Amino acid sequence: MRLDPNLEDPDGFYAALVAAAEGLTETQSQDLALRLVFLLANQVGAKAALDACIDEAARPYRKDSTHG
């Protein structure tokens, strides 16, 4: 799993993400985010990579975490 910045155009990605959620309700925005997660997960495909990403994303929210 890569933790170093690897986005071709991070500002453009963020702008597109914000634009996609513009005008949506909070629930619709959450649905959009979840749909995006599943689409990106399908692009990654490899279970080991997806499991590592889930673990890293959840790390700050664990009770035993010293980083959250």
Automatic annotation (TrEMBL):
Entries under InterPro entries matching the protein: DUF2783 (IPR021233)
Highest taxon, organism lineage: Bacteria
Protein name: DUF2783 domain-containing protein
Source organism: Rhodoplanes serenus
